[in-house]
Amino acid sequence: MRKCNPVRVGNCVLDGSYIYIQSMLNTRSDDIEGSVRQAAELEAAGCEIIRAAIPDMEAVKLIPAIKEKISVPLVADIHFDYRLALEAVSAGIDKIRINPGNIGDMDRVKQVADACRNKGIPIRIGVNSGSLEKEILAKYGSPTPEALVESAMGHARLLERFDFEDIVISIKSSDVNKMIASYRLAAERCDYPLHLGVTEAGTERMGLIKSAVGIGSLLCDGIGETIRVSLTDDPIREIAAAKDILRSIGRRKGVQLISCPTCGRTRIDLVRVTKEVEEALADCDRDIKVAVMGCVVNGPGEAREADIGIAGGDGCAVIFKNGEVLRKIKEENIVTELLGEIEKL
Length: 345
Fold this sequence. Notes:
This protein is α/β, with parallel strands linked by helices. The protein is built from eleven helices and 15 strands. Strands 8-7-6-5-4-3-10-9 form an eight-stranded parallel β-sheet.
């Protein structure tokens, strides 16, 4: 695991020992009631850090309204106007997301750095392919990983100039290969916590695939302290996707469902059974492995490591525990019997 300088965001400590799930409100910034409601829904779904766009002074009102209803940290997403950052700090925000290079002269950067330092509020430097400085683009010709990292490190140096080091860095791209390369390079060049994400990843189908490849690859390298699965969809879906990514690599407890793709040997409706089991266990937070297999070739043999599972027969199945067969059951009773055994674990 990569070592980084710990940064505290509200009640979260970003040091790599635990990967925090983040999302962002997609309600209008002038819809306070709707934004508060969505923030509460995100927290209930398992979101651990919530970000909200603060495009103008009116939107600053979101901060106390949301913080009154949630217990997880709230991040203000700010561009261009340094005064919005200062007002967000005064309103009680837990973290600022900003690019120090696009808020004006050094005095403005210093004001933001001083305000955040005085309140113990970290700053996330957010760089992406569409926000590179003209001189860096001219130097590299395009938003290459080297260009993105140079931009991020330059922004960090602006804050360091004013003795501010409670910094988190994100370097996002919609290109998965570029995103992975950028974060790997950043991990080599700094010890600040890194927030991972594939930006503009798309709708749920492709967004999930791109995020799983990009975020998952880096987490397997030991890189990343917080993650966000960006989907053009209800942000609640981002939380479920992030949990699944973390569970799949053993970084979050919960049910791991193993199921085979079926073949000509299958004699039960395995697709239906698997979907019913998955739905029934969707909210289960027990750290167990459940196998739903089509025949005895795949289970319990290939699924021997599962805590509990079934292997289909001809209109029936066997239920097994830790590789040992418990009994034979009828097809219509598979889901009920399996869930009953899970309750006993």
